[in-house]
Model the fold of this input.
Amino acid sequence: MLVSPSPLEEEIVDHVDSQTSALTFGSSSGSNFVIDPGVGTNILVNITNNASITDNANVSIVSSSGWNIVWARNSVPSIGDDIEINSNELVWIQFRVDVPFVENGAPLAGSKHPISVKAISEIDGLESYWNFTIEVTEVAGISIDSHDEIASIEPGQKILLPVSLRNTGNYPSNLVIQVQPMLDSGLPVEGTIPAQSFTNDGWAVGTFDLYKIENLGANESGTVLIEYAAPYRASAEIKVRISAYNEDEPLDIQRVNQTVNIERTRGVSIEFDDPNICRTIFPQTINNSETCHQNLAITNTGNFEDEFELQVLSNPIWSTVELGATTISLDKGETANGIDVEIGILNDTMARKTGEVTIGAFISGELIVIEKHEIIVDSVIDWKIESTNTTVENENLTLTLTFENTGNDLDGIMVSLDMDVTSNFGLIPPENAITDYSSENIRFFELRDVEPGESISFSAFATTPRGLEMNGTAQLEVMVQSIRQPALNFSCIENIDYLGENYN
Done:
């Protein structure tokens, strides 16, 4: 493009001082040239030396735009070139201004960029200017600055994915965004077109916050949201093409692809209702086969319905554990309560033994979580009379008793002796018994720390009563109590016949 200014009609003073410069441009300042971005524009302007002598003028081109300016001279335009101009001579100055392409919204449409052609006279240093402006035309543009290429979603849930659009044109514009389902081949799903929303194969996809990309200024950004509503499936995938364009340039379309996958997470938690329940358990006996029942709760912590398997992973060898249910199906977030866990302690198991019952929850054969429950064997306090033996010799009765600790824990016995008629009687305790020697004959003792299954023997003696007036029968009573459980007691009575003095 070659632009020539209109001639400037000026009245030239005939009598000019021979030492005064008179450089005059052939066009008045104020011209405005409307140019398309990316175009090099040729400018042609003349300058006349109206002085009476030759002037060696320095001619330069000054611009604050930073644009590229070139001419067919040996010097840089901004520095200038010295041009010899004879008196009354007209010289043409030609140069090209390269208007840059619009990038990131600049140069703005309608903005005027000043450029000056300056001539400095060698005669007196006076400066003459021709000033003009270049105005840039409108250019539409758009870019998709950011988006998620891949995202995941839970079954049956929704997510919002941001897409940032930018008006890369040089004037305020409305931007448009559309979505379309795609095949794995990269082709659109048959029968679909780009639109603000669509449904396909159980998916619903739509665009939101579109007001944020309306009337965007040059190089201004706006973020819209694309909502994905997934079908309730364990696994699925959707591929979407996102198209965006400037409303004023609908054929200049920017496209990106986005893939959203349904991500199934599988998880389970199990928990005993109360750790104090079935913590201390009595062993089973021949006459009592009772067990303890604990409750277990299981929760599907995944994001989809699932099936779980419960197993007893370990338990002490002196215990038995049975599960009321082993296979359980649960919806997402569902909890099954009251799953019975039956725990038994084998007969003859010693008291105070401790151990753990470990329950595991499996998904598709994989152990996911375990839960442990501590159990303690409770004490069973029990005694039995193993044998009794009574002998009478020389009017002396001896009763020998043998007791067995048939419980499962250490215990002891308290033994006392009484007789309802005055006589010589007492106890013969085991060697390690604790006795009361305050009286001549022992009539009470304790025996402690008797091991389960251990037998102990002791004797009671009594002399046939003498010196009584009437005949009668005396009772010798041995009373035995458990130390740890006094309510467990035994009474052994022996009758001793005696004669009164009147019958001797």
Observations:
- The two ends are 166 Å apart (CA to CA).
- Residues 383-503 form a domain with the Immunoglobulin-like fold (CATH 2.60.40.10).
- Residues 312 and 359 are 5 Å apart (CA to CA).
- The longest strand covers residues 249-262.
